[in-house]
């Protein structure tokens, strides 16, 4: 029939070795001490008990070529099945002899992949079908073959013997049924019978001969061809499923596994015999029982004759020896022999003889798997046993760490020494600074796993960093000088262990940024300059605290709104680089700072002069390390850079850290103002009133010590008078400096005046600056609103001159008009043109602002003509006047400038007037003109009359 091999192999993986319960007792001398690993074994056994409960239900068939079940480090999994004989290569409903022989017996042939076509052998007594030994049958094998019947007992229930009422054939079919229901296959499951039935009758007085036991004559099952294994230097375990009708303990089936390598002269027994009737639960024994009423309905059609209505309990065990084979080669011969020498009993059957790769699994892990540069991690090597939990002695490994990853000299282990002796400790060689870890160890019996912990640190001495991604995988296991030979005499990176996957350690770059912020002044006042210094630094790098260059660091300083017109500069030290040398407004820069470097920003602004807010001014600067930086994958690697998460112990990457400084308002604020306001143009003799306001914001008296610098005022004006000292002492001006001193407890003002000079002026600019203390400001200091005022002296002279320009003419009147988009605008009253006292024909304006104006003559001197058209003029910021086109073409208007003051000169020819003394007068001129006009009129009249007479004589008339 077609075998269901695929599904049956799965069952073996799920149930063959996963067992639960207490460790079964072992005989002295045949059992090794289980002193190491009892705690871990107990935990695993508890987990396996859960699996055992599930195994009591009928299971599905299993895969033919299973792989090791996946489990986490420290969690045992069943070994991989490398050989399985399930005796299924028999047509359904038939029976097959184990060995060929007389009576038509054809030997059973294996169908297991990789072993297909091979036969087995056994001792004669255990392959005698007439005694129900060596018969491969199922519950459905209702008809016994002839070679399984002796004497007169020809009816099928009485096969395998002559005794009436024995019905051995029915009972071995029941064992096959129970085995199939418990371990997979149901009624179609085939088993190997080892029932050892008597071959005498009840009438001849004979006795039951004993079936032999022992490794020579008691062989039930033996390979004739070596089993191929996965490779050399592996641990192999064996297992078998059994069904038995149990009786006295001395008569119950016991099976002993033995092995040898091809060519070996002797066999080696493996551990203690496995017991088909054992009721102990352990990693090596999974016990179940099934009780059947002996009826045809309950047993799938088996007839019971004299046993009808009774019941039988079948013991079902999944067994494995308590030892494993440590093999240097890749081939193995195996046999299983009877270990019970009873004459009666030994009523059993077995199935699913298997070889398992019980090589422990090795896992690698770094804990933690992500560290900061300079930190250590623990490389944990976990050796995990397979689920049968047998001892695994004498394995070794050599792990060559990735470049720049080295041991620190600290290590520990829970593994036993290579000998496996209780209380011993595995040999771990991992010297400080070494890039190689060598371990020689063992797993104790019942020990689920053991660990080797080696502290490691990534570091490159030349580069002073360990930043990188370090992958420690199977290829890192290579033999070195300290590697011991494996069981086959050859050195390997791994001996007796299943290679692990990869473990990765990521070492992140550390930047250690700090930011400080300072204000140059302890307090602020309206109109005063404020200066902030922001310093962003990266800590120096040491072997104990390595620091990486911080790239793409964002530095910001959002200057408070009350600090006006901010500017900033950036300077760097220690190899740092600024993104920009400076700028205006808020600071927003991206910088690079190596270890020990820094960038320094100086932010300068000014509090507005009219800022009356009494609140503190707080300025906050922020430095933000990048969340990621591109760096080589390992120190010095030429490979393309990869992104690394950035670590900063005090300045969170991507979020940043900040520094702030809060400046309170000064208790004394000084404000300078003027009337007219600063910037207003002044004329000669104009009066400027200066007011110094001392704003007292505290509760205690405040000392006043200020200097009002008049050096830029008194070159163009003279000091007027002190109108109000405000309770303070005002001295000067001495050396053109006015000193204000004293103490105030409330707001007060100092008021004084100056008068613009008429002549002998300096630069025609009144620049007045007040400063704290007695030291006057420098000539290049800026004019800060609130502490400084400026008034240009800018006015205009207009004069009316005779035609030859030699005499000023009295009687003229002029006005200034505004400019209306290039046309004459409204008359201006400020500034207005007024006559200069004591001067004929000379006019002067008040202070005139720069701009475009029109000059219009509204009244001419007697006997003279008005200026033909208004004249456009442009007043510059320096007071210079130019005529606008087309006024520049007017011939009788000219502009001149002396000492910064411009004069418009208007010349005008006289009209016709009588001579003042002895002249001929104008009578002759008038008479001559009249006669000429009369003659011209007579001539015109005469010409028109001649034209009329000529027309009357024409033919049309």
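Q: What amino acid sequence fits the structure above?
A:
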């Amino acid at each position: 029939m077609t075998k269901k091999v695929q599904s049956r192999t799965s069952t073996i993986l799920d149930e063959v070795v996963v067992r639960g319960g207490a460790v079964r007792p072992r005989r002295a001398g045949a059992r090794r001490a289980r002193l190491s690993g009892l705690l871990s074994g107990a935990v695993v056994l508890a987990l396996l008990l859960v699996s055992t409960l599930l195994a009591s239900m009928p299971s599905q068939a299993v895969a033919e070529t299973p792989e090791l079940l996946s489990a986490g480090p420290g969690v045992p999994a069943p070994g991989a099945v490398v050989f399985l004989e399930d005796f299924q290569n028999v047509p359904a409903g038939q029976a097959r002899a184990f060995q060929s022989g007389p009576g038509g017996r054809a030997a059973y042939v294996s169908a297991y992949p990789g072993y297909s076509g091979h036969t087995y052998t056994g001792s004669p007594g255990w392959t005698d079908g007439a005694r129900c030994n060596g018969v491969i049958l199922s519950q459905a094998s209702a008809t016994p073959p002839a070679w399984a019947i002796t004497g007169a007992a020809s009816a099928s229930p009485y096969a395998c013997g002559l005794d009436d009422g024995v019905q051995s054939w029915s009972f071995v079919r029941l064992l096959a049924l129970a085995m199939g229901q418990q371990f997979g296959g149901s009624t179609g499951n085939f088993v190997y019978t080892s029932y050892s039935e008597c071959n005498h009758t009840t009438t001849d007085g004979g006795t039951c001969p004993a079936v032999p036991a022992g490794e020579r004559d008691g062989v039930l099952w033996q390979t004739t061809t070596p089993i191929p294994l996965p490779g050399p230097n592996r641990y192999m375990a064996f297992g078998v499923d059994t069904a038995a009708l149990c009786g006295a303990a001395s008569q119950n089936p016991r099976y002993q596994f033995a092995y040898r390598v091809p060519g070996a002269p002797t066999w080696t027994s493996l551990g203690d015999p496995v017991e088909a009737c054992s009721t102990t639960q352990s990693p090596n024994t999974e016990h179940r029982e099934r009780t059947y009423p002996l009826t045809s309905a309950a047993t799938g059609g088996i007839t019971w004759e004299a046993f009808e209505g009774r019941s039988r309990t079948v013991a079902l065990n999944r067994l494995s020896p308590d030892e494993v084979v440590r093999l240097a080669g890749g081939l193995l011969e195996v046999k299983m022999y009877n270990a019970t020498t009873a004459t009666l009993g030994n009523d059993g059957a077995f199935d699913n003889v298997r070889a398992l790769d019980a090589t422990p699994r090795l896992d690698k892990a770094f804990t933690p798997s992500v560290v900061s540069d300079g930190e250590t991690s623990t490389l944990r090597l976990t050796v995990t046993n397979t689920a049968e939990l047998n001892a695994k002695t004498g394995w070794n490994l050599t792990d060559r760490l990735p470049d720049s990853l080295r041991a620190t000299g600290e290590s520990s282990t829970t593994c036993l020494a290579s000998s496996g002796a209780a209380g011993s400790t595995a040999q771990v060689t991992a010297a400080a600074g070494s890039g190689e870890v060598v371990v020689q160890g063992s797993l104790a019996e019942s020990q689920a796993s053991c660990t080797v912990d080696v502290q490691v640190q990534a570091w490159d001495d030349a580069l002073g960093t360990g930043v990188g991604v370090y992958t420690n995988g199977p290829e890192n296991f290579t033999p070195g000088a300290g590697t011991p030979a494996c069981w086959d005499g050859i050195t390997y990176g791994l001996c007796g262990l299943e290679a692990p996957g990869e473990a990765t350690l990521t070492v992140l770059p550390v930047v250690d940024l700090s930011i400080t912020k300072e204000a140059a002044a302890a307090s602020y006042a309206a109109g005063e300059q404020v200066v902030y210094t922001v310093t962003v630094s990266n800590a120096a790098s040491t072997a104990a605290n390595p620091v990486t260059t911080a790239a793409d660091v964002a530095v910001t300083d959002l200057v408070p709104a009350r600090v006006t017109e901010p500017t900033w500069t950036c300077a760097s030290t220690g190899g740092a680089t600024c993104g920009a040398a400076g700028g205006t407004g808020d600071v927003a820069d991206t910088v690079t700072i190596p270890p020990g470097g820094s960038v320094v920003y100086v932010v300068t602004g000014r509090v507005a002069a009219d800022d009356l807010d009494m609140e503190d001014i707080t300025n906050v600067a922020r430095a933000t390390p990048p969340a990621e930086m591109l760096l080589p994958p390992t120190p010095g690697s030429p490979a393309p850079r990869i992104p690394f998460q950035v670590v900063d112990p005090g300045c969170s990457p991507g979020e940043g850290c900040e520094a702030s400084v809060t400046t309170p308002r000064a208790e004394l604020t000084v404000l300078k103002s003027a009337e007219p306001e600063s910037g207003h143009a002044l004329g000669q003799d104009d009066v400027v009133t200066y007011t110094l306001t001392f704003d007292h914001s505290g509760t205690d008296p405040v000392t006043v010590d200020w200097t009002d610098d008049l050096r830029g005022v008194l070159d163009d004006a003279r000091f007027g008078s002190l109108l109000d000292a405000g309770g303070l002492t005002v001295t000067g001006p001495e050396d053109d400096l006015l000193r204000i001193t004293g103490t105030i407890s409330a707001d007060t003002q100092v008021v004084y005046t100056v008068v613009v000079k008429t002549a002998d002026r300096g630069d025609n600019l009144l620049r007045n600056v007040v400063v704290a203390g007695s030291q006057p400001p420098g000539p290049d200091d800026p004019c800060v609103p609130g502490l400084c005022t400026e008034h240009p002296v800018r006015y205009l002279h207009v004069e009316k001159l005779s035609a030859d320009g030699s005499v000023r003419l009295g009687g003229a009147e002029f006005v200034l008009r505004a400019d209306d988009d290039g046309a004459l605008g409204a008359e201006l009253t400020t500034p207005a043109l007024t006559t200069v006292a004591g001067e004929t024909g000379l006019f002067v304006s008040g202070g005139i602002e720069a701009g475009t104006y029109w000059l219009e003559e509204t009244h001419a001197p007697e006997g003279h003509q008005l200026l033909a058209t208004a004249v456009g003029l442009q007043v510059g910021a320096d007071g210079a006047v130019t005529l606008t086109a087309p006024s520049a073409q007017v011939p009788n208007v000219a502009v001149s400038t002396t000492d910064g003051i411009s004069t418009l000169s208007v010349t005008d020819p006289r009209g016709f007037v009588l001579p003042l003394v002895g002249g001929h007068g104008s009578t002759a001129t008038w008479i001559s003109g009249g006669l000429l006009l009369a003659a011209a009129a007579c001539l015109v009249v005469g010409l028109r009359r001649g034209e009329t007479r000529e027309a009357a004589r024409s033919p049309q008339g």
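Q: And what stands out in the fold?
A: The CA atoms of residues 291 and 313 lie 4 Å apart.
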